[in-house]
Amino acid sequence: MKSWLKIIFHRSLWLAFSLFCCGFSAPLYAAVSRVISLAPSTTELAYAAGLGDQLIAVSAYSDYPEAAKKLEQVADWQGINVERIIALKPDLILAWRGGNPQRPLEQLATLGIKIFYSDVQKVDDVATELERLAAFSPHPDMAKESAASIRNKFNQLKQNYANLNPKPVFLQFGMNPIFTSSSHTLQSEIVSACGGKNIFAGSLVPWPQVNREQVLTRKPEVIVMGGTKAQKQQVADFWRPQMKVSIIALNDDWFSRAGPRIILAAEQLCRQLN
């Protein structure tokens, strides 16, 4: 019998024995000891929720906080290493609903491994995810305090910039092709909170592909992107022949990840946009 089949067999026996001895009276949520994160955003959520010491493996690009870099990687853009995850015997897996493939997660769930799906669409969802993770954390107060801090800071930003005349903003992701975001995204929400108006807010899909002419006809005053100074210059050069606008380059990890540091991106954007 292959080693991974043995692992499945023994884990299934353990699960059956647990149910036989304990029935279904055990709580669905309880503090866990072995956690695997399958996305950089869920890794950051885990640490903010007080689960850092319980993390045993993460995905590629899980580079914050520093301790995450030392953990084994079991997932990347190519997929999830199911056999290795089974061998590590986690009791909780943190998965990104929009980014992780569903089939291997369903396979892991059949072995009795709890799957926590993160599906952040708004800033408040980040706080809600932290509150949900508090049920698994040995430090639930840390998770709840992190959630409250995000809500308080974001509400304060919205109050501070509520009375400004909205500036037309183009959210740019990439140049060949060019993608942007609709109002159904975390990034668009923080633009609105900071006194901006997303020129593609009405798109029917969250991440539409657009062309140069579509952007020019909407006449943005500001371009918001995530990236370095060098990438900011590339965007400026791309538009310079036809459009001169202010460009705000935010810390890409803060801006692109649906995790606790989105509030840092919001604070950075509000300062620069105004």
- Identify the overall geometry: globular
> At the fourth CATH level, what is the homologous superfamily of the largest domain?
Nitrogenase molybdenum iron protein domain
Whole-Å distance between the termini? 64 Å
Largest sheet: 6 strands, mixed
Keywords:
Rossmann fold, six-stranded mixed sheet, 43% helix, 2 domains, alpha/beta, globular, 274 residues, 17% strand, four-stranded parallel sheet
Could you explain the architecture of this structure?
The protein has 274 residues and is α/β, with parallel strands linked by helices. The chain has two domains: 3-153, Rossmann fold (3-Layer(aba) Sandwich), CATH 3.40.50.1980; 163-273, Rossmann fold. It contains eleven helices and twelve strands. It has helices at 3-22, 40-48, 82-88, 102-109, 123-133, 140-160, 186-193, 212-218, 229-239, 252-256, 262-273; strands spanning 35-37, 55-59, 72-76, 79-80, 92-96, 114-118, 167-171, 178-179, 196-198, 209-210, 222-226, 246-250. The strands form three sheets. The chain has a six-stranded mixed β-sheet with strand order 4-3-2-1-5-6, sandwiched between helices. A four-stranded parallel β-sheet has the order 9-7-11-12, with helices on both faces. Helix 5 runs antiparallel to helix 6 (140-160), helix 6 (140-160) packs parallel to helix 11 and helix 7 packs parallel to helix 11. The radius of gyration is 21 Å and the shape is globular.
